[in-house]
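Lay summary. Proteins are chains of building blocks that fold into shapes, and those shapes determine what they do. In this project we predict the shape from the chain. Here is one chain we studied, written as its sequence of building blocks.
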Amino acid sequence: MAEPIALTALALDAALGWPRPFYDRIGHPVGLFARIIGACEARWNRRAYRFATRRALGIVTLLILLLVAGGAGWAAQYLLLAAFGVWGWIGVALLAWPALAQRSLFDHVRAVGERIDAGDLPGARSAVGMIVGRDTAALDEAGVSRAAIESLAESYCDGVAAPLFWLLLLGLPGVWAYKAVNTADSLIGHREPRWRAFGWAAARTDDLANWIPARLSGALLCLAGGGGWRILRRDARKHASPNAGWPEAAIAGALGLRLAGPIAYDGVMHDKPWIGGGDSDAGGEEIDRALAIYVRACLLLWLIAGGALWLR
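And here is the predicted shape, written in a compact code that computers can read:
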């Protein structure tokens, strides 16, 4: 049953994204997760508490999220299938749809490329600032382009491959539990002193949830790009994250570019290693090539879901 649900959710997301009228009227489900995390963090992540206490309260926060997301997903799936029988999967697909981000990611990265092609570097910086956490005010054209391509590769895993993986494996409760964990990691799963203890559980759980999807993403991006395997094997583990380096190294290899490198966050420069190689630097043309690889890699995920349905 998960395969037609996945294919329908993928089709809805590719065609419509998450429409702005929906967002304005009802928001997005991850907004609920963000509010739960914010409320728990404000109440429990206090400097007066010991490190171990804050870590334990971070675990409790994550368990609350999983209970809300996974529990609501399970209840909705059970009720729809019980009420509508064989046709209940359509309702499940509709509820899985907003967990995927194929269209949104494509549109955001394409907006960066369009600004660069128009010679509007300030506009490109503003556009890329919507999808990355690094400082963007001082980035040149190559820096903006690299940031967009890196976000495209990493979010291919977080926003498409991993949600689809958990949807196919565990259905609606699986995909929304994953989205809750991933949201928690993006908000509190950081190494800074404020988050190190409280966000520990979110970061480690997200690492575990993305372990297989990240490696799958790297392989699919290499297949879609017609190469990059050598860079994938060589550089995937250079990233500080155990997972993000796989899709980034794959797309860097497929494009023949250097990605990552020194990056500034909140005014502090972090001397990160380079991933990939090549003599040319990134620009609008490379963003277009990366988007073409991304589209083909998404289609490969469609084939995986369709193949699973055919085999069943």
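What the prediction tells us: The chain has a mean pLDDT of 93.
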